[in-house]
Design a protein that fits this description.
By secondary structure, the chain is α/β, with parallel strands linked by helices. The chain has two domains: 8-184 and 383-396, Rossmann fold (3-Layer(aba) Sandwich); 196-381, Rossmann fold (3-Layer(aba) Sandwich), CATH 3.40.50. Helices cover 41% and strands 16% of the residues. It has helices at 35-51, 64-73, 89-99, 113-121, 135-140, 145-152, 165-171, 196-206, 222-235, 251-259, 289-295, 315-319, 334-343, 352-361, 365-381, 384-396; strands at residues 27-31, 56-61, 79-83, 103-107, 126-131, 157-160, 179-181, 211-217, 240-245, 265-267, 280-282, 298-301, 323-326, 346-348. Strands 3-2-1-4-5-6-7 form a seven-stranded parallel sheet, with helices on both faces. A seven-stranded parallel sheet has the order 10-11-9-8-12-13-14, with helices on both faces. The longest helix is centred in the first third of the chain and has 17 residues, at 35-51. The chain is globular.
């Protein structure tokens, strides 16, 4: 699957019609918007199912891309993924009638009024998990402050990622006594699994060349990334750039920019190999980031360099031993990047020149040791986030 279009054989789920019956026993329901939010929940899901061997989890999401990513991540067998029901009276009631969840965990700020008010109306405990309120989101949501107040009032507990978010939730009417700073679940995520049958030939194709990754990039960053690679090649001829745009639809734009600077590009979306003369490998596919982080010892984590962007999760790279470079626009993960930067576990760059110089400097294994060590220490300090979140959810089950 190359895009986020509908999956025809599962469209009925959006109307509250399911092929699988509700399992016996406790059913935890978690809702997440898309790929990143679903993957962040997997350690929590694993914890729940390990603690309660007879329980099941229903995980809902909104996008077809999340199906591909979850298949690659291989969640536990007792985790059932279905699409979020359409936010209509009929679909929501069918969903709740069918699954009868014992507790509902909504991730981040993906709010659907009918779904949430109907859940609350049935007396199902509701917990907001892994949530955050960056300054930009706080400002933009002021115009719907009444809706925010009413929606936040539905939750029994609100678990936020950072201390800065807590007063912003209170400003929208959430009860301070319901709010806890638990940390970011993404910091505790296990390494993304990779298909070894795909990884081995890619390693052979790259051989002993230097390589770096530009991951989850926005189209507004591609010119700067390509300019940086031009400078990297001047210092380290033969270096390969793996360019993995955040959106597959940006592949054509990235290819056009690349072809203006480099003669040799290969594109995974067309099934092309990495040849000896390939200068840029365009990884325009879904659910394969685990491959690219494993292949690249240095990763620029995108959606962070151009004004107006807000950053992407750095911990997927950290978990797979890739050194993290990032731009200054990281509002969605401000606390995570601040802690990583302060510890020396990641490094901020502000332009293509700084990006290139750091990519070159980190190509030796010796130069990466300190950054990897400090990043792993940050991750180790945050492992309690899963336990804290699970405790709040477990306490909600009667």
């Amino acid at each position: 699957m190359k895009s986020g279009k509908e999956l025809p054989d599962r469209l009925a789920e959006k109307y509250g019609i399911y092929q699988r019956s509700r399992p016996d026993g406790i059913v935890f329901w978690f809702h997440a918007l898309s790929v990143g939010e679903c993957l962040a929940l997997i350690p929590l899901i694993e914890k729940a199912l390990e603690e309660l061997p007879d329980a099941h989890v229903v995980l809902t999401s909104s996008t077809a891309t999340s199906v591909t990513a979850l298949a690659a991540a291989r969640p536990p067998d007792r985790c059932i993924h279905v699409f979020q029901p359409a936010d209509t009276f009929q679909a929501v009631r069918r969903f709740l009638d069918h699954w009868r969840p014992d507790v509902a965990g909504f991730s981040e700020l993906d709010f659907w009024p009918r779904l949430m008010f109907e859940t609350n109306g049935r007396g199902i405990p509701m917990i907001l998990v892994n949530s955050r309120m960056p300054e930009g989101s706080f400002r933009s949501r002021r115009r719907i402050s009444g809706v925010m107040r009413d929606t936040l009032g539905l939750f029994d507990r609100i678990l936020v990622q950072d201390a800065d978010s807590a007063p912003r939730f209170v400003a929208f009417g959430a009860e301070a006594g319901k709010i806890s700073v638990a940390g970011a679940l993404k910091s505790a995520a296990r390494p993304l699994p990779a298909n070894e049958t795909e990884l081995a030939p890619l390693r052979r194709q790259i051989g002993g060349r230097s390589v770096w990754l530009a991951a989850a990039t926005h189209r507004s960053e591609h010119s700067a990334v390509i300019a940086a690679h031009t400078k990297v090649i001047e210092e380290l001829p033969g270096t390969l750039l793996i360019l993995a745009p955040r959106h597959v639809r940006d592949g054509d734009d990235a290819e056009a920019i690349t072809e203006g600077q480099f003669a040799h590009l290969s594109r995974r979306g067309r099934g092309e190999r990495i040849e000896k003369n390939t200068q840029v490998y365009l990884a325009d596919t879904i659910g394969e980031m685990a491959l690219w982080y494993r292949l690249a010892p240095v990763s620029f984590v995108g959606h962070s360099l151009a004004p107006g962007l807000e950053g992407k999760n750095p911990f997927e790279a950290v978990a797979l031993g890739s050194c993290v470079l990032h731009g200054p626009e990281t509002a969605y993960f401000a606390e995570s990047y601040h802690n990583l930067d302060q510890a020396g576990g990641a490094k901020k760059v502000v332009n293509s020149e700084e990006l290139a110089s750091n990519v070159v400097a980190l190509q030796s294994a010796e130069s990466r040791k300190f950054m990897i060590k400090r990043a792993n220490e940050i991750v180790a300090d945050r492992r309690g986030v899963v336990d804290a979140t699970w405790t709040a959810i477990r306490e909600a089950v009667q």
